């Protein structure tokens, strides 16, 4: 075997570990991925017809407040000045998100000052004053009052989760910002942007080293190819970023995930929505949001086709066999099952489980990079030095 370390999964966790292994220890690293491209869920490609950069697994926006991660990613790519802003269509009108003074004043046809708006919302949320809401429905009402909750949250959430909001945990929207000024930046992080030459160019630069080799369309569980679980585990250090329950042949049961899927539309227009992401908060539109990829990269004006545009409508559902697992559902039963799998992972010789699938966790890109840098220093480097 021609490798000191095998990485299963060419997503951001696997790529970061591979890059660090070569740079810090000079190890030879072999990466495999069952897909036919690197980059995991953050992979993107250029659409031939429109010139738009399509994020194949859903819109990916990079943002972080972690200086170590920001410095690290800037070694491989420059970032554009893109800042994320989202709009939503409700009842035939377009409103800015996240809910801010602009949304509130438009919704109530008013011109409240920040303080007046605070008082109005507090009054509307008053029906649940003094309670500690446990479900999403009550949490939403106590956060923004019933009228705004019913307009912007209730039906969108029901579409996204296919579950009545009164049966969902309050935690899903606890982080939802409500702003009493006109700030409609979606993220509050210190740094934000999109990779200047696209995600895939960034990822290619991370592993541009003769000591790193890659086998695509290669399944770790396929015994007919040499880089498989039974041949490798115990023989060489392995970093595994696939689904943790799959690694153990689902012997304790299956963890639950939600998935998203897309329907593509093409229009004979330069710009269909006028923004990159339009949410649809009413139940008559079956998808949750639409992504117009062109609008992520206004700086590429000269490279874009201004006669046509491509839009992906995003739908959400519980993941079935064969679907891409995207968001951990994380019920109490899932968490208990994951903790049992975690005990099994600790008994695997020289195998490090990482990334969102390997640890059953929802991570943003900056979080997954940070966790890979830490795992490398704490677990993987000592293994390679031995
Ligand atoms: P992945 O990217 O999933 O990589 C795991 C890899 O392992 C995959 O390529 C898979 O093919 C491979 N693999 C699995 N099983 C096997 C096997 N048996 N053999 C070989 N290979 C295997 N983050 C942000 O920061 N901003 C965003 O705007 C954002 N938007 C998102 C939107 C959506 C719809 C989703 C789903 C995620 C979004 N994220 C976003 C999160 C981001 O995608 C993740 O943080 C990141 O991709 C996780 O990297 P990873 O390496 O852990 O996993
Ligand atoms: N949400 C909503 N209406 C919106 C946008 C978000 O009700 O227009 C709620 C919904 O419950 C969703 C949560 O806020 O699950 C988080 O949404 P966000 O867009 O931040 O996360 P993502 O779906 O991209 O992970």
From TrEMBL:
Keyword line: FAD, Flavoprotein, Isomerase
Q: Among the entry's GO cellular component annotations, what is one?
A: cytosol
- Annotated UDP-galactopyranose mutase C-terminal domain ranges read 151-362
Q: Which residues form a coiled coil?
A: none
Q: Which cofactor does it need?
A: FAD
Q: Name one GO molecular function term.
A: UDP-galactopyranose mutase activity
> Which Gene3D superfamilies does this chain map to?
NAD(P)-binding Rossmann-like Domain
User: Among its keywords, does the record have Flavoprotein?
Assistant: yes
The family this protein is said to belong to: Belongs to the UDP-galactopyranose/dTDP-fucopyranose mutase family.
Q: Which PANTHER family match?
A: UDP-GALACTOPYRANOSE MUTASE
Q: What name does this protein carry?
A: UDP-galactopyranose mutase
What species was this sequence derived from? Bombiscardovia coagulans
Q: What is the lineage of its organism?
A: Bacteria, Bacillati, Actinomycetota, Actinomycetes, Bifidobacteriales
